[in-house]
Design brief:
Layout (H helix, E strand, L loop, with lengths): L7 E3 L5 E3 L3 E5 L3 H12 L3 E5 L17 E4 L1 H9 L3 H7 L1 E3 L1 E5 L5 E5 L8 E5 H13 L4 E4 L2 E7 L4 E6 L4 E6 L2 E4 L6 H7 L5 E16 L12 E7 L2 E7 L5 E8 H4 L5 H11 L4 H4 L1 H10 L3 E9 L2 E2 L3 E3 L2 H4 L8 H16 L6 H31 L5 H16 L7 H7 L4 H18 L1 H16 L8
Parallel strand pairs: 3-4, 3-14, 4-10, 7-16, 14-21
Antiparallel strand pairs: 1-2, 5-9, 6-9, 7-8, 11-12, 12-13, 15-18, 15-19, 16-17, 17-18, 20-21
Helix pairs in contact: 1-4, 1-11, 2-11, 11-12, 12-15, 13-16
The protein binds flavin-adenine dinucleotide (FAD) and 2-acetamido-2-deoxy-beta-D-glucopyranose (NAG).
Pfam families: FAD_binding_3 (PF01494)
Organism: Bactrocera dorsalis (Oriental fruit fly)
InterPro entries: FAD-bd, FAD/NAD-bd_sf, Kynurenine_monooxygenase
């Protein structure tokens, strides 16, 4: 449509002012479909290439996690494309964690007793559909489903796809190729082969598997406005509410524990021992069926730098920074990438090359920071939560937040309920730690906190 418009023109100052670009987006998941929408709104010619078929017409979506916790950063990015209210209208607010101990006792810990912020449980498929549907309004977005990228020339912006069902090769080219193709990104694989790109990936010992607590008589079987957590040291189970009054349950534990559960009997014994209160909710028959349906999935953490290559290639979302899911920020961080990228596109004097360069520079510290935080939470969940000093610190945090809500924002809250750069959230926490040890109140308060925390027994939380 805009083929006739030159890609870039020189203006009087010798600065490049950008015309509409032909942009290829690889991956029509949550970040890809958001990026497509954002660029189309700015008049660019967008081609969205997705490996799978159109999820809006597909019968079953095999995605990672059926629902997700949406928080401030994701909401802000959705607001920028005018979709926040539409998404929140069907999302289910989760005001706090509801902890299930091994005896089945439940304890509520609000996320934010001071200003009442909450997380929102949204369906992955629904969110993806909202984003794709919004794109239908733009004639300058073309969607190409069942196109799997298998090669890209990063310098020329030339791509090759395998098109289902015959895997015939389809070629295309673009002024800018943006890889939003997830944690196992083909685009990233091609980028990290080039010299000068730092890259690390880490598979953790834990895998995860999804189960379901169905609705009963058309009602939720547990209070719906909470993120339910069954903390069990090395294992962890959580449940998020769905629109259809079911809960999606995610069981996360070391592969070597999964390996010990091979028979129906072993499974039921395990569940009756650790998650007894959940068994009647899930139902034994359904538990057995769902547990053995699919092997547990791996979790990977990926960091790289830079996120761009030359003037034509960029990666966003999980492709750039996949993280373990223990902070509930993967999607939020990916959507925030779009916010950052668009703020650069909105600076008329930047060339495409400068936009990409500045994106990497603006983003990498914070992306690395949230990957680290997510990993830290994973470790914390297993070890730190047992330490008394850690529990005291958590208690103290909540008290200080209650007393000085504008000065003392705990780490979890700054990550989930503000847009403070992730690296600053960590710096803020370090400042708080330093203050506490300097003032030396921790020692005094610790004595009190030990008593309180053993009494309430609620400080074993860290997941979400
Ligand atoms: C168990 C679990 C729970 C999670 N919970 C949360 C949460 O509560 N909150 C949160 O913020 N985040 C959460 N996350 C993280 C979140 O799922 C991801 O960060 C998010 O999905 C990233 O979106 P994306 O679009 O970058 O990648 P993806 O969602 O992976 O989408 C990538 C898309 O690219 C397509 N694709 C892949 N390869 C190709 C190719 N070669 N050619 C063309 N297309 C291709 C795929 O089909 C897919 O549609 C969770 C993750 C897991 C695993
Ligand atoms: C790669 O990592 C090294 C060591 O941390 C660092 O000195 C270097 O600047 C990094 N290079 C890039 C391109 O990120």
């Amino acid at each position: 449509m805009s083929n006739a418009i030159p890609q870039s023109t020189e203006n009087g100052n010798g600065l490049q002012s950008r015309g509409p670009l032909k942009v290829a987006i690889i991956g029509g998941g949550l970040v890809g479909s958001l990026a497509a929408l954002s660029l189309a709104r700015r008049g660019h010619e967008v081609h969205l290439y997705e490996y799978r078929e159109d999820i809006r017409t597909a019968e079953l979506v095999q995605g990672r996690s059926i629902n997700l916790a949406l928080s401030q950063r994701g909401r802000k990015a959705l607001a920028e494309v005018g979709l926040e209210q539409e998404v929140l209208a069907t999302a289910i607010p989760m005001r706090g964690r509801m902890l299930h101990d091994i005896k089945g006792n439940r304890t509520v810990v609000l996320y934010d007793p001071c200003t009442n912020q909450c997380l929102y449980s949204v369906g992955r498929k629904y969110l993806n559909e909202v984003l794709l549907n919004a794109g239908e309004k733009f004639p300058n977005i073309q969607r190409h489903f069942e196109h799997k990228l298998h090669y890209v020339n990063l310098t020329q912006g030339r791509m090759e796809f395998k098109r289902a069902p015959n895997k015939e090769i389809v070629e295309a080219n673009a002024d800018l190729v943006i890889g939003c193709d997830g944690a196992f990104s083909t685009m990233r694989q091609q980028m990290v082969k080039t010299p000068g790109v730092n890259y690390s990936q880490e598979y953790i010992e834990h895998g995860y598997l999804e189960l379901c607590i169905p609705a009963k008589n058309g009602e939720f079987q547990m209070p719906e406005n909470y993120l339910h957590i069954w903390p069990r040291d090395a294992f962890m189970m959580i449940a998020l509410p769905n629109q259809d009054k079911s809960f999606t349950v995610t069981l996360s534990m070391p592969f070597k524990v999964f390996d010990t559960i091979r028979t129906t009997e072993e499974l039921l014994n395990f569940f009756h021992k650790y998650y007894a209160d959940a068994v009647p909710l899930i139902g034994e028959e359904r538990l057995v069926k769902d547990f053995f349906k699919m092997p547990p999935q791996h979790l990977v953490s990926v960091k790289c730098h830079p996120y761009h290559y030359g003037a034509k290639a960029l990666i966003l979302g999980d492709a750039a920074h996949a993280m373990v899911p223990y902070y509930g920020q993967g999607l939020n961080a990916g959507m925030e990438d779009c916010t950052f990228l668009m703020s650069l596109f909105d600076q008329p004097n930047l060339t495409t090359a400068e936009i990409l360069e500045q994106f990497t520079e603006l983003r990498w510290r914070d992306a690395h920071a949230i990957c680290d935080l997510a990993m830290y939470n994973y470790v914390e969940m297993r070890d730190l939560t047992k330490r008394i000093s850690f529990r005291c610190r958590k208690w103290l945090d909540t008290q200080l937040f209650r007393w000085y809500p504008s000065v003392w924002v705990p780490l979890y809250n700054s990550v989930s309920f503000t847009s403070m750069p992730y690296s600053k959230c960590i710096a803020n926490r370090k400042w708080q730690d330093k203050l506490l040890s300097n003032v030396f109140i921790s020692a005094t308060v610790a004595l009190v906190a030990i008593g309180v925390s053993t009494y309430f027994g609620v400080f074993k939380i860290s997941y979400f």
